[in-house]
Amino acid sequence: MSQAVRRATLGFCLFDTAIGPCAAAWGEGVLTGVQLPEVTPERLRARMRSRFPDAQELLEGPPPGFAQQAIARTRALLEGAKDDLQDVPLDMDAVAPFHRRVYEIARAIPAGRTMTYGEVARAIGEPGASRAVGQALGLNPFAPVVPCHRILAAGGRSGGFSAEGGAATKLRMLEIEQARFGSEPGLFDGTGED
Fold first, then answer.
1. What is the rounded CA–CA span in Å between residue 69 and residue 117?
2. Separation of alpha carbons 166 and 118, rounded Å
3. 154-169: per-residue pLDDT in tens?
């Protein structure tokens, strides 16, 4: 099986969010990668340089317009905005077809909602593929634009999360979104507080 070649990544930058510094990389008109925080900004920068060795880090000035908008919306999402980011253009050329189907389902989950690995597997027509869904999400090159944090293990358990901080980061992101777990009340429902 031959895999498509990823479009050229022209640049990347780090940007601050409510959960720590994240990073975005872009090519011609598309994001080629998004990265959740690492332990330090230096490790985040090193990861981006490893993922995109030919890209130039943008140290001054804003990124291109579409990337600047995607970064602003991602920042707002991580502060609690209800934005699904579905229209943010992503370079899926080098993404395996199965992973692409998983990411399409993940992108359709509204902020504040969740699905399970099994529900995603059934939604793509492969009900026995829960483990493969988890593996695809662990390789997600676009988190949180592809919101893998919204996909949980059976019974509403957090499941794995490959970002720094693991499940604690996943749960923090869900708390920011005031997530509801299936038909169950959300983390903040019924508290009596406004």
1. 30
2. 20
3. 877 677 767 777 778 8
Question: Could you give the CA distance from residue 179 to residue 177 in angstroms, rounded to a whole number?
Answer: 5
Query: What b/e readout covers 8-40, taking b as 16+ CB neighbours within 10 angstroms?
Result: ebbbbbbeebebbbbbbbbbeebbbbbbbbbee
**What is the three-state SS of 118-129?**
HHHHHHCCCCCC
How far is the C-alpha of 87 from the C-alpha of 178, rounded, in Å? 22
Q: What is the pLDDT of residues 130-151, one digit of tens each?
A: 999 999 999 999 999 999 999 9
Other Cβ atoms closer than 10 A to 122 = 17
pLDDT value, residue 181: 60
Angle (CA) 168 172 176, round 5°: 170
User: How many of the other CB atoms lie within 10 Å of CB of 1?
Assistant: 4
Which residue in the list 23, 148, 152, 174 is annotated as catalytic? Answer: 148
Look at residue 19 and tell me whether its pLDDT is greater than 50: yes
Is residue 148 annotated as a catalytic residue, yes or no?
Answer: yes
Helices 97-107, 130-138: crossing angle, 10 deg rounding: 90
Going by their DSSP bridges, the two strands 56-57 and 11-15 should be labelled as parallel
Q: Could you report the per-residue pLDDT of 95-136, keeping only the tens digit for each?
A: 999 999 999 999 999 999 999 999 999 999 999 999 999 999
